[in-house]
Fold this sequence. Notes:
This protein is of the alpha+beta class. It has three domains: 4-34; 57-70 and 180-339, 2-Layer Sandwich (D-amino Acid Aminotransferase, Chain A, domain 1), CATH 3.30.470; 86-175, no CATH class. The chain has helices at residues 4-20, 24-29, 48-58, 65-68, 70-80, 108-117, 156-167, 182-188, 279-290, 328-339; strands at 87-91, 98-99, 122-127, 137-142, 145-148, 153-155, 172-175, 195-203, 206-215, 235-238, 245-251, 258-261, 298-306, 309-316. Strands 2-1-7-3-4-5-6 form a seven-stranded antiparallel β-sheet, sandwiched between helices. The protein has a seven-stranded antiparallel β-sheet with strand order 12-11-10-9-8-13-14. Strand 10 (235-238) and strand 11 form a beta hairpin. Helix 3 (48-58) runs parallel beside helix 10 and helix 6 (108-117) crosses helix 7. The longest helix has 17 residues, at 4-20.
Amino acid sequence: MYSPRYARAFGRAVRVCRKExxxxxxxxxxxxxxxxxDAGEPARYVSRKRLTKIQKALNPESWAPLxxxxxxxxxxxxxxxxxxPRLYAIFFPGAGGWSCDGASxxxxxxxxxxxxxxxxxxxxxxxxxxxxxxGVNVFGRNGREFTDAFGVSYTAESLYEALRSAxxxxxxxxxxxxxxxxxxxxxxxxxxxxxxxxxTLLDGDGCRILHAHFKPIVGPHVxxxxxxxxxxxxxxxxxxxxxxxxxxNQITGxxxxxxxxxxxxxxxxxxxxxxLPLWQQTRALVEATAVKFxxxxxxxxxxxxxxxxxxxxxxxxxxxxxxxxxxxxxLVEALSAxxxxxxxxxx
Length: 347
C-alpha cells in the first residue's frame, strides 16, 4: 500500500475522477485506474455524467417519462402504432390497475381473478421504471399455478403478493413473452430474449442511427443486461449498413478493462461476421419510431428480433455510454453538433 506503485495508482484515480467526472466504480471497470495503462486511455471514454449533460441538452427532462416509465411507454406505443410486446396489464399497489381486456383491477380479488383466467400461459413481468434488467422475470401459468424462470412456484394469491411487494410506487407491467429469431438461438443457445441496442439521433437530416450493438446472453441469465458483481455483459458492435457483428467484448470487472470475446462461450459460434437477421427491417423500424418520440431527440432502443419481425422492447432516454466499443468520440461529436455547441468538453 505504501509502495510507489500504489501512489501512482492513487494519483491516477484522483485525476480521472476529478477531471473526466467518472464515478470510481465506472472508471475501475474500464481499467482507468490501472497504472500500467496508457496515460491517454481516459480520453477514449466518456463518463456517464458527461454523457448525461449532453443528453439533457437534446432530451427535455419533462418528457423523459414517455420512455423511462414502461407503462406510459407501452401505452404510447400502442396509440401511435409502434410494434411492441403485447401489453397485458399494469399493476399499481394500492390503486386501480390497467388491463388489456378492460377488466376492473381495483384490488386483490380483481387481480387474483385476472391472473388466474386472463393472462396467457407465458408472460413477462418487469418494473415500470427498472433498469439494467433488474426485477425482470418470466412466468409460466397452468390454471391457478405459476412458475417463474428460476423454478419458484406461486399461486394466484402469492403471485399477487409478490407483485405488490415488487411494484413499489412506480408499478409493474405484465407483457407478452417474445421469442428469439432462430438464428439468435443458434448463436447463443438460449431461449431467453436477447436484444439489439440501437442509438438514434434526430437532427436536421432526420433520423440518424449512430451506433448499434447486440447483447447476447452468456451464462445462466434470463435477461441480456446484467452485472455479475462488477463484470458486465458480453456485447458485439454491429456494422450499421450490413448488420454484421464485429468481435464481441466484455468489461471484466477486474480493473483491467475490456477483453475480447471472439466466440460465444457456450456454442462456439464466432461473433465476427455473424449476420443479424431482420437487420434492414430493424433499421426501418427504429427510424420510423424515433420521429414519433419527438421532442426526445436521442434514444437508445432495445429491439427484439423475433420470428414475426422486429419489436421495440424499450426506449432509453439516458442511455449508457457504449464505451467498450471504442466509438464515443464520434458519438459525442454528433450529439454535440445536434445540441448546437461543443458539449464534448463540458463539465
